[in-house]
Structures are given as structure tokens and as C-alpha cells.
Specification:
about 10% strand, alpha+beta, three-stranded antiparallel beta sheet, two-stranded antiparallel sheet, 3 domains, about 240 residues, 5 helices, about 30% helix
Length: about 240
């Protein structure tokens, strides 16, 4: 989202300080369940964004600054107040009126990972099967953009036709839990939880065993599953007092 009339100020605080629930925790809807979160980015990226902005876009702010400077000099006001004039010069900067949104939801989780002829990982992710979710995400982004009176709303470039590729920073699956080796890689049986089928005492204990999208940041889910794997290996549960 670019060019909002209301300030977005994405450079304040860490990444993800708030979220909006869309049919995930409340009024669950399997076809449209997702969360929207804010994605702050550091000041160094904000300065970079300003550096690549065409100079012509600064003309209005520059005229405002020069007019304010002249007024302050001719009226005898303290030059120390020029800090406010400088602030006027920068108050229409790109980053201050830009907002990056993160959305994650429960897609069909039916992607397939394979190795190509060069032994490189290849992912086939049929987006059409989860199109109802993606359309809901896009519509929520447009609504957010309208609420801030932004001039531009744009999804990731990878979503443009004909590419239609998704991007994730929470990769899950690959060695998913299952009841037998025909449909998964690791055992979901509590007695051998996380053990690779056919390989005794070989366990997987990270996000690779998660069998489906969880719709939210998966850290807590991965930690809980890893504790279950550890409990099965050592034979006793963790001490809740530690």
C-alpha cells in the first residue's frame, strides 16, 4: 500500500505489533481463514526508499520548505525553529505513507516438493485450489488501503499473471506426520512420534513435520510438537516448573 493520506509510520517498533483476525480464531471459516499483520521495516530501508524516489515527487514539499524558510528569516523568528521546516520537507516521505501487510492463512496445503534433474528443490503449489482464500486476502488488503485513503494497493509482484507464485517465510511440511508411510514421512503414533518411517531412532523435530497450514505464526505449534518428539525419545514429559 503506497501513498496513504493518513500516516502509516511503518518504521516504528518491531515487525508485527498487531493483527486482525479474519475467520481464523473467531467465526472460523475453512475457506477464508487468515490473519493480517503489519510488517515494519527499519529506518535504513526507509532511507533507501527515499533515495530511490524520483526527485520530481519532492517539489511540493521543497516549495513548502523554501516558503517557510523565507517567512521565518524575514519575520525574525529564531532559526532554531527551522527544524520544523525540515520536518515539513520530509513529512511526505514515501516510507511514512507506505504500509507493508503480511497475511497468512489456511490454504489447501497440497503443494508437492521434488528434486529436479539438477538436484535442486522444486515446488509445485497449485494456487487455484486455494483461490477463495487468496481472493479474501486481496479484498482485505484493498479495504485496508481504502481506509487509509491510499493511492496504490499492490500485492507482491510474484502474484501478477502469468506467474501466480506465493511466497512464505514459514515453510512447513516435507516430512509430515502421518499414520503410515503411504501418506507421510514421520510417525504420528504417540509411541514413536516424529520418528521417520523405516528408520528406527531417526527423528524430525521442526516445522517439517507439521502436516498442514496452521493459519497463524507457527512458532508455538512447532515448539509444542518438538516437545512431544523429545518426550517420546526420553520417556518423560517436561517439567512445567522449569
Amino acid at each position: 500500500m503506497l501513498g496513504s493520506k493518513l500516516p502509516a509510520d511503518p518504521n516504528y517498533g518491531p515487525v508485527i505489533t498487531q493483527r486482525t483476525d479474519y475467520n481464523l480464531f473467531k467465526d472460523f471459516d475453512r475457506e477464508h481463514a487468515f490473519m493480517m499483520q503489519d510488517a515494519a521495516y527499519g529506518n535504513i530501508l526507509a532511507w533507501f526508499a527515499e533515495g530511490v524516489k524520483p526527485g520530481v515527487l519532492r517539489l511540493d514539499a521543497l516549495k513548502h520548505f523554501l516558503r517557510d524558510l523565507y517567512s521565518r528569516l524575514t519575520t525574525g523568528k529564531s532559526l532554531g525553529s527551522l527544524g520544523w521546516a525540515l520536518d515539513d520537507l520530509l513529512n511526505k516521505d514515501v516510507s511514512f505513507h507506505t504500509c507493508v501487510l503480511l497475511c497468512m492463512g489456511i490454504d489447501k496445503s497440497n503443494g508437492v516438493m521434488t528434486l529436479d534433474g539438477d538436484h535442486q528443490l522444486s515446488i509445485d503449489w497449485p494456487y487455484k485450489d486455494s483461490l477463495s482464500l487468496y481472493r479474501a486476502i486481496l479484498e482485505s488488503g484493498k479495504q485496508f488501503s481504502r481506509s487509509l485513503e491510499a493511492s496504490i494497493f499492490a500485492p507482491l509482484p510474484t502474484w501478477d499473471l502469468p506467474i501466480r507464485n506465493n511466497v512464505t517465510v514459514h515453510a512447513l511440511g516435507g516430512c509430515i506426520l502421518a499414520n503410515d508411510s503411504a501418506v507421510g514421512v514421520t510417525s504420528a503414533d504417540p509411541k514413536t512420534f516424529g520418528q521417520v518411517f523405516g528408520y528406527r531412532d531417526l527423528y524430525v523435530a521442526d516445522g517439517a513435520i507439521v502436516p498442514t497450514a496452521v493459519g497463524a505464526n507457527p512458532t508455538a505449534t512447532i515448539a509444542a510438537l518438538s516437545e512431544m518428539v523429545a518426550e517420546g525419545i526420553i520417556g518423560f514429559a517436561p517439567d512445567p516448573g522449569l
